[in-house]
Write a structure and sequence with these properties.
Blueprint lengths: L2 H6 L15 H5 L5 E6 L12 E4 L2 E6 L1 H13 L3 H11 L6 H14 L3 H14 L4 H13 L3 H11 L7 H17 L2 E12 L10 E6 L2 E6 L9 E17 L2 E13 L7 E13 L4 E14 L2 E16 L5 E12 L8 E14 L3 E14 L6 E14 L3 E14 L12 E12 L9 E13 L6 E13 L1
Helix pairs in contact: 3-4, 3-5, 4-5, 5-6, 6-7, 7-8, 8-9
């Protein structure tokens, strides 16, 4: 861990601070005795209330759970970790003290250089108690000690939502998050999976559509390739980012992401890759402006269908209470080797607000507008949209998310083959996500995602509905 981070997050290991009560009263109500067997040479200087039995160099202490907890806490606070270990280990068998055992054992592991074990102990607590601020702060420390700064920043942001944080601790968290952002060099993650899909070609379910032949309007029967088809696809995606500091408040940021879906045959295969690169200027510890050139390529059915290049400007501000506001302007040129009518310019703007909820989840809302000026007026359109979502940690170690959105598009001219009225679309989207980030299989975490989309339009040929379930294994670095 960089020394600046060590200095900024020097949080004393005291059980009662920041909401993690020692639960001594609850322990006192339990009549059973806890037994701790300690080598005589390692016995604490201050003996417990009840006498110990020592045989062959080992002393056996019989303590009530409350006495055992108090002694273990005191030894950890005094940094007498070797003396504390057997008493903390005895807590694992004491009724009602699993949280205290995992917390103290995690602190000992963290302070003695075993950050991986420490993180495991703290995650065990958060699995069923995701609102424990103190535990989340210690987990952030353990993650930073392993160089996992992006994950640490996530937990620090959740911890900032605690209104009961002492002012000096809140200030330390803000300082650490600022240092993490300025020192973060790279990020990377990818997933693989499979996805049953009700409409792999995003087509209509209609068997016939009415079209105009001069003054006559006639029904036309659609062949199977023009109608919705179901299938199961193999999926993969990845993202990567690189941040290279150039000056005190200036860095160059490189981002890339890609998604791939392969179905039987190649008619509905859908692949996309996007790159972005440019400078990031820190206006303050909480406000950043990024200007990037962007490029995107998409292949559908085995051939290149879209090329885009342009730029985007992003302003992001983090509030001290865990809130975040982002505003982005985007302009790019679109070229289609398939249909020159889709060539032209796309301009967009969006604003997103995020808020930490209940110290374990993040809610967000976005509004956006997009204008497409294309060669063919029938394809040119203006879109307005809104989306909202919430995601975070649930008991049992489950990560979950729920989101949805709605947008409206109005096209400039009719496609007279289908109608003499301008096309207008309402689009609806929904997503439900469940993941087990606590579970690892060769470093991968399982998740399942359900997506729903619908296009409700006055052009029957473009009317569609789609259900997709994606089972994935993901790896984050």
């Amino acid at each position: 861990m960089p020394s600046a981070l060590k200095r900024s997050l020097a949080i004393a290991p005291v059980m009662a601070s920041l909401g993690l009560a020692s639960n001594a009263q609850a322990a006192e109500s339990v009549p059973q005795l806890a037994i701790a067997e300690v080598p005589a040479a390692a016995a604490p200087v201050s003996a417990p209330a009840r006498p110990a039995t020592c045989v062959r160099g080992k002393c056996e202490y019989r303590l009530s759970p409350a006495q055992l907890l108090a002694l273990a806490e005191r030894l950890v606070v005094e940094k007498k970790y070797d003396e504390a270990r057997p008493f903390v280990a005895a807590l694992s068998n004491a009724p009602g003290l699993q949280i205290q055992y995992n917390f103290l054992d995690g602190l000992i592991a963290l302070e003695t250089g075993d950050a991986k074990t420490a993180a495991s102990r703290f995650r065990t607590i958060l699995k069923d108690n995701p609102t424990q601020t103190r535990v989340r702060l210690e987990l952030a420390r353990a993650l930073m000690a392993q160089g996992k700064f992006t994950n640490a920043d996530y937990h620090l942001r959740l911890a900032q939502d605690d209104e009961n944080l002492p002012e000096d601790i809140a200030r330390q968290i803000s300082n650490v998050r600022s240092i993490i952002r300025s020192n973060r060099k790279w990020r990377f993650g990818f997933d693989i999976g499979f996805a049953p899909d009700s409409n792999i070609n995003s087509a209509t379910n209609a068997e016939t559509v009415d079209v105009n032949f001069g003054p006559v309007r006639l029904p036309v029967t659609l062949d199977e390739d023009a109608r919705a088809r179901s299938g199961v696809g193999l999926t993969a995606s990845f993202y990567a980012g690189l941040r290279l500091p150039a000056a005190e408040n200036l860095a160059f940021v490189f981002d890339t992401d890609a998604s791939f879906v392969n179905y039987k045959g190649k008619d509905a295969d859908d692949h996309a890759v996007q790159l972005a690169a440019g400078p990031e200027l820190a206006l303050s510890s909480d406000t950043r402006v990024t200007a990037q050139g962007v490029g995107l390529m998409r292949w559908y059915g085995g051939r290149l269908v879209t090329r885009q290049y342009g730029s985007k400007l992003t302003l992001q501000h983090d509030f001290s209470s865990g809130q975040r506001l982002g505003v982005q302007l985007d302009g790019r040129r679109t070229e289609s080797p398939v249909n020159p009518g889709y060539n032209g310019w796309q301009l967009g703007a969006n604003a997103t607000y995020e808020q930490v909820i209940a110290k374990s989840a993040i809610a967000s809302g976005s509004v956006y507008v997009r204008r497409e000026f294309l060669n063919e007026d029938a394809y040119s359109n203006t879109t307005y949209g809104f989306s909202a979502g919430i995601g975070g940690e649930l008991p049992l170690g489950i990560n979950a998310g729920l989101s949805g959105g709605i947008s409206y598009s109005r096209y400039d001219r009719p496609q007279t083959f289908f109608s003499f009225d301008e096309r207008s679309d309402w689009r609806y989207q929904g997503r439900v996500y469940l993941g087990l980030r606590q579970f690892r299989l060769a470093g991968f975490s399982p998740s399942v995602e359900y997506r729903y989309s619908q296009i409700d339009t006055n052009y029957a040929f473009y009317r569609s509905e789609r259900h997709r379930v994606n089972f994935k294994l993901a790896r984050y670095f």
